[in-house]
Design brief:
Blueprint (H helix, E strand, L loop, with lengths): L2 E2 L2 E2 H32 L6 H18 L4 H22 L9 H23 L15 E3 L4 E3 H23 L1 H11 L1 H6 L4 H23 L11 H14 L4 H21 L7 H12 L10
Antiparallel strand pairs: 1-2, 3-4
Length: 295
């Protein structure tokens, strides 16, 4: 059996694949957080619960309405994003003139409520969600076996992340969004409905989390706590990339997923803490993050 640095090739590339899968979800979730923080200055602790809601929405659509995976990729993010719009209008909009800590506490408490409701209803055990038939099986690459669904998740997440970056950084809509965070009164004088734009931006960020939840459902079992541990790692990814940096969240998400995967091969004991160690080092050397701007 071929080895690289004393590690069997198949095991090494298998862990790299797992790292890329985890990195895909880190990137999508941190992207949603970066959009919300960068454009609204809200630290959205509800993001993990909204990721979980996306997975449950897909499960409900399949088991209660007979709607499969492909339609769930569209319907679930829209439905969960709509709940985000309601939250922003009824709760968060009242806190914009207060200290950011109030928004953080509200979203943290809301996340606990949502997780508690789902856990009370469905318990802590996971619910299976089957892989769509078109994506079952895989490819034998010789040095490893590549499941079709996992390849799809990686490619789809890259496309979604880059498309979001392009819209925000390279289009007129993105320019309006960025300008509205800097000088909302000026933007509103041009006839732009800034409150509606803020609401839709929050709903879009929530929809990204829900989309990640739908894509995660066939890989991980759908359960009420699936976002609770993940959100802590995602916040670390956002801090390392730079709070509010769109490209920083994307690049850092994928890179840290790979680093985590390689750590599981060469030093498994550190695999659960390596991201936080990197975060501490980055904060010491560059407090604004790798892609963040010094204020």
């Amino acid at each position: 059996m071929t080895e690289i640095l004393g590690v069997p090739t198949q095991a090494l590339f298998g862990q790299l694949l797992i790292g890329l899968i985890n990195g895909s979800f880190y990137a999508m979730l941190s992207l949603g957080l970066a959009v919300i923080f960068g454009l609204l200055n809200i630290i959205n602790f509800t993001h993990g619960a909204q990721y979980m809601m996306g997975a449950f929405a897909a499960w409900f659509l399949l088991n209660k309405a007979g709607i499969g995976y492909w339609w769930s990729l569209l319907i679930a993010p829209l439905a969960v994003g709509l709940t985000g719009v309601v939250v922003e209008r009824t709760m968060l909009a009242r806190l914009y003139k207060l200290d950011h800590l109030y928004g953080l506490l509200l979203t943290f408490g809301l996340a606990l409520v949502i997780q508690g409701v789902f856990r009370n209803e469905f318990g802590a055990s996971g619910l299976p969600y089957r892989i769509p038939e078109e994506l079952t099986g895989g490819y034998n690459l010789g040095f490893m076996f590549l499941p079709k669904y996992r390849a799809w998740v990686i490619v789809a997440s890259v496309v979604v992340c880059l498309a979001t970056w392009y819209v925000i950084e390279r289009t007129k809509l993105g320019a309006y969004l960025r300008a509205a965070t800097e000088n909302p009164a000026l933007v509103q004088s041009f006839g732009v409905n800034v409150p509606r734009m803020i609401t839709l931006t929050y709903g879009f960020g929530v929809g990204l989390a829900a989309l990640a939840g739908v894509m995660a459902a066939p890989i991980y079992q759908v359960n009420p706590l699936m976002g609770a541990d993940l959100i802590i790692v995602v916040f670390a990814v956002v801090v390392i990339g730079g709070m509010g940096s769109i490209m920083g969240s994307i690049v850092t998400g994928f890179l840290l997923g790979i680093v985590e995967g390689l750590t599981k091969v060469f030093y498994p004991e550190a695999s659960n803490t390596v991201i936080f160690v990197i975060m501490v080092i980055v904060l010491i050397l560059r407090p604004a993050g790798l892609f963040g701007r010094e204020r």
